[in-house]
Every structure is written in C-alpha cells, then in structure tokens.
Amino acid sequence: MSSTDSKILRTEPLAGENAKWTRLILTTYQDPLGKSRTWEHAERPTRPKGSDIDGVGIVAILEKPGGPEIVLQKQFRPPVEKVTIEVPAGLVDAGETAEEAAVRELKEETGYIGVVSETSPVMFNDPGFCNTNLRMIHVTVDMSKSENQNPKPELEDSEFIEVFTLPLTDLYAECKRLEKEGFAIDARVATLGEGIEIAKKWKL
Q1: 187/125 Cα distance (integer angstroms)
Q2: Cα–Cα distance between 95 and 181 in angstroms, integer?
Q3: How far apart are alpha carbons 9 and 126 in whole angstroms?
Q4: Contact status, residue 120 vs residue 105, Cβ threshold 8 Å
Q5: Alpha-carbon gap, residue 172 to 189, rounded angstroms
Q6: CA 102 to CA 147: how far, in whole Å?
Q7: What are the tens digits of pLDDT across the range 52-82?
Q8: Residue 50: CB partners within 8 Å, gap ≥ 6?
Q9: pLDDT digits (tens, 9 = 90+) for 85-144
Q10: What is the 3-class SS of 91-159, one letter each residue?
C-alpha cells in the first residue's frame, strides 16, 4: 500500500454549514486612501482558545555520522490531487505549547523522538487567502538512542504517510528531482532547501 494509490473520486460544492475545517469570510476594510473595500478569504475555525497558532511544522534533523538528514513525508493531498512532499506537521491541541505539539506529532507521524532546539516566529501560510498560521519547530533526533533505532509511527486510521529521509545538504536538488517525478512540493520544504542553497552561494 502506497500514498500514490489514492485517487479523487469526485468533487462538489460544500455548503458553509457543513464545513468542519474551513469557513469562507467576507471582510470589509479601509485602505490607506480611506476607501472601503472587501476581501474574500478563508479561515480555520479550529484554533484552540488562547492559542496564537493553528499548528506546527517540524524541521526534524537526524544526527548521523555521514552528516545531518532531514525527515520528510509523502502524503496524498486531495486539494492538489497529488502526493505531496512535506515536513511532519499537525494541529496544536488545547492547552498545548508549540514545542509540545511538535514532539508529539513527530512521534505520532514518524516514530522518532527528538529534542526541540529552535522555535520560529509565527508564520502565515497564505495570508492573501486565509488566516492559517504556524510555528516551525526545529527538533534534533539523536540516532544513537535506542528509541530511534527502529521508529514506529502511530498513525490514525485516516492517515497514510510514508516517511523518508534525505541528506540536508541535498534538499534543494532532491526537491527538483521529486517534482520531475510528479510529486507536489510543500512550500515549507522547498523554502528550506532554497535557504540552504542561498547560504551556500553567499557563504553565510
């Protein structure tokens, strides 16, 4: 069984009252010239009360003798009708910090147990379209520990995730290769790879 075995059966309009994960909004605002304008957008209605974010993305780095490797996933995403290359990610539970959510989601989706090393500012995925946001949490995974020798994901019945790793230094080139093979590349993955290439070019 592979994520590539998934396929779209049909698409149809969804009434707002039947939507669980998204909501369409029409916002009226005033521009710098004082003119009233409207903006059609979506919002995620599931953000926990008191939380400043919807979820987390996880930059999980495996410490290996041959060099650091990044943990990635293949997962079919119906909106783009493709298997997407992504970092592990998930929604924050009520009363949970971003760091706690990252450690939990990493273990659930990949089986790896890591330690948080960095937390990003709040990032907005597509601010012209929706209010969805997250923090990127950097997690280091010590491969010398027994719990990381044979990691076993704890997936939900509706989750079909394939976990794989890549040398961190090759990430951008691998994104290009995977796109040619027909995969969709999540913006967070591509941006990480692009950032590494910029750092190499400019010797940052």
Answers
A1: 9
A2: 41
A3: 27
A4: no
A5: 9
A6: 17
A7: 999 999 999 999 999 999 999 999 999 999 9
A8: none
A9: 999 999 999 999 999 999 999 999 999 999 999 999 999 999 999 999 999 999 999 999
A10: ECCCCCCHHHHHHHHHHHHHCCCCEEEEECCCEECCCCCECCEEEEEEEEEECCCHHHCCCCCCCCCCC
